[in-house]
Amino acid sequence: MTNVTFTIKQIAHILGGQTEGNPNTVIDKITKIDAGEKGGLAFLIDKKFESYIYTTQASAVIVKDDFNPSRKLSCALIRLAQPQQAFVKLLQFYENLKPQKLGIAKSAHIPKSTQIGVGVYIGEGVVLGENVMIGDHVKLYPLCYVGDKVHIGDNSILYAGVKIYDECKIGSECIIHSGAVIGGDGFGFVPDENYVYEKIPQLGNVIIEDNVEIGSNTCVDRATFSSTIIRKGVKIDNLTQVAHNCDIGENTVIAACCGIAGSAKIGKHCVFAGQVGVKDHVVIGDGVMVGSQAGIHRNAKSGEKLIGSPALPVEKGLKALGSVQFIPELINRVNELEKKLQELNKS
Amino acid sequence: MTNVTFTIKQIAHILGGQTEGNPNTVIDKITKIDAGEKGGLAFLIDKKFESYIYTTQASAVIVKDDFNPSRKLSCALIRLAQPQQAFVKLLQFYENLKPQKLGIAKSAHIPKSTQIGVGVYIGEGVVLGENVMIGDHVKLYPLCYVGDKVHIGDNSILYAGVKIYDECKIGSECIIHSGAVIGGDGFGFVPDENYVYEKIPQLGNVIIEDNVEIGSNTCVDRATFSSTIIRKGVKIDNLTQVAHNCDIGENTVIAACCGIAGSAKIGKHCVFAGQVGVKDHVVIGDGVMVGSQAGIHRNAKSGEKLIGSPALPVEKGLKALGSVQFIPELINRVNELEKKLQELNKS
Amino acid sequence: MTNVTFTIKQIAHILGGQTEGNPNTVIDKITKIDAGEKGGLAFLIDKKFESYIYTTQASAVIVKDDFNPSRKLSCALIRLAQPQQAFVKLLQFYENLKPQKLGIAKSAHIPKSTQIGVGVYIGEGVVLGENVMIGDHVKLYPLCYVGDKVHIGDNSILYAGVKIYDECKIGSECIIHSGAVIGGDGFGFVPDENYVYEKIPQLGNVIIEDNVEIGSNTCVDRATFSSTIIRKGVKIDNLTQVAHNCDIGENTVIAACCGIAGSAKIGKHCVFAGQVGVKDHVVIGDGVMVGSQAGIHRNAKSGEKLIGSPALPVEKGLKALGSVQFIPELINRVNELEKKLQELNKS
Known about the structure:
Structural class of chain A: alpha/beta
Strand order of the largest sheet of chain A: 8-10-13-16-19-24-27-30-33-36-38-39
Oligomer: homotrimer
CATH class of the largest domain in chain A: Mainly Beta
């Protein structure tokens, strides 16, 4: 957190709320209500945590405007109509206070063929290839590599050590985290009769549309030809593999450690939990929800909710996975039934 | 794709085929038959896509030499004896048109102790340790790190940001993708009676033989002593872990997000799908096929086909995994049977 | 291995043991007993490998002091009270012989605001942000990025290409392997009514306590506010995801390819095998053991042993997972029972 201090009066003004207690109470951090400390501002959003407000060490707590304390409070309050929205708003306010990186480092390698917008940050040790286009207010943190003919749209941020292979296109307002690799070769080979694999050249690229966030050390491979596409608003967490020729639909969210195999097509506003696997060429509709560690081996219709590997509809899957533990007992019961039935037949 | 144009007559000549329609039809890209566009060259390999050839916007389509259109075509044709092989051949032709990187960047750090072959590319910001040997025509893309005493064989390519720890050996004709880490310490510790773990030094190395491809952000750990070995022709996809002292046999193919634990020995020309786990010290024979997300906890004989976790032979495994969904129903049926049998016994 | 030679007399002296055979036998490597070679020193720790000692090509073998050969040996011996401890001790001895990196490379970017201890190594192409604190004897290998206000404690090592985001704290005696990313943004978004996700700024940091080792390409995300904490003595293998606000307890060991979701709290000296997933907000007690590929969706008490997904106690889980293969047969048997019972009822 930035080391800046505000009075709760100032914060109430920013968030559009009312103070209660000393309006000059000084805040220098956001804190949890159950582990608060002096100078901390906590949130009471979920009523089940109310008991903590009477014992918190936080200097102030943001509460709903109709909050009615049942005991005496030692903290000041900020009363708001919508404390939950205020949480994000306050974090954004603090975020915006951070000093912004600006300027082009001497040690950055920037060929003459580069087109650069205004207000950019290009950090130490960044290496650009030939004919790169960098939009306005782009930030390239140190030690990024941007290959030949790559385009990066306005306001996008590449954190330290991102690698973008030749000819990939990154949209505007994108965030790509450290160590992510965009545009590596798709995994394509043809075996001969002696099992020696010949490489299929991967001549396509990756297109990342606007407002996409890609996590640390995630990989998005280039298409064999044409493009692997990450559509606008997609959010992909860390350490996820998106293989060649995939097409990830708008506003789909993919948690960490997933593996999406080649040519899979995923619809809009799907939500994938962590460690999910998707088979190659599978087509997944819009709004599909997938539980952690699921394995999707078949197409899925819009709105399906899937869990397990191989994946099942969620109600069926929950019952099935929950009953695996009863198989040994079931075997015993069937043994017993067979024995009894045999005895019955004899008698 | 490189921005070069050819007539279909030129392409037919390269591939050894016959044109039909205007031989001067200009091609500037490879395209899909179902989404073709002007200037595009599409392939009709699988007969089930034949209907697209009558509606495609592609300027030309490569077809089998005996293709007999049932309707009028608006695209030109190139007729070939083996369109499938031509696909790879054509991609390789385009790949070879790409301008090749060459020369040693000023900002690369190359100690005097380095031995360098002819025709190399060493990009901006590359850092070599002491006593490194770089073969002929090697390409080290920007920001690679190559530790002390590392050898890299002829014609190998390390893409941007690859890290090779000290003393590892990379063969000839290898491709290592961005962010891969070769030779990090194996994960070895001994706990004392207070659960404090003491590090077991990892003094071995990694040997990568010829013609190996290693995916983006994949990790191959060095051996405790001796060597972790990736044998010739192995292809490993992105984000895969190969632990210390593993031995991966010739021409084995491992898809993305797999985890191969310490000292596992995998045979020749095996094929692993994505997200597979292999237990430490497991020995897997030649030609073993492993389905996605499988967990291999025991040795596997040559030719086995395994799926599931713990892994089962594929026929058994398919039936078993496919029947998990019926367990809840099965429990109900056994309940019912027990009730009926009790009633029968009473009567 | 370092290219240094010792006589077995010297090695016996280092380890506190007795030689048998020629005390001037020269050793230049550690080797396996079953694949020994001239100049190699092997270990016979596990009695089941005894047969190899009679055929090994190793020049010398370390044995327990009471070892009584049943046949003639061609190798020399070093007899020790505790050969197993000697293994680690000998590896550490060799490790300490390695030349240590020292000094600050010219191409490293070190702002004036940096505080640097004595005896440090800062390699080529390292980039430090503003107000970084580097303790004594710290080693930053080439091409590391260390963000603003990061602290790194004494004797810690960051291998090539590690990226540390702003404001994270790394303790003393830590080892962080190549490509690891510490302090990337946690994965937090709020959707609006059109499924457009707004980013929740991630303003916290990561605190890594003393004596922690973090594997290659592993990611530890910063907290939304406050800190993601990796407590002292924790060992995390490669390619593992630790999400925002997690708290990993002292001396816990996590193997490769695990995914620990947001705000999970893991106790002390737990042991996780590879590819394990932990759901967000789950609380896991001390000394919990988790099998490979397990999925932990609920809190776990101290001392629990868990396998499977969803995880079950180990005895129950082993039986259940081992019986999945019998479900198809079980269905047939229940079909049969139902048929027979129906016939019985008719008669």
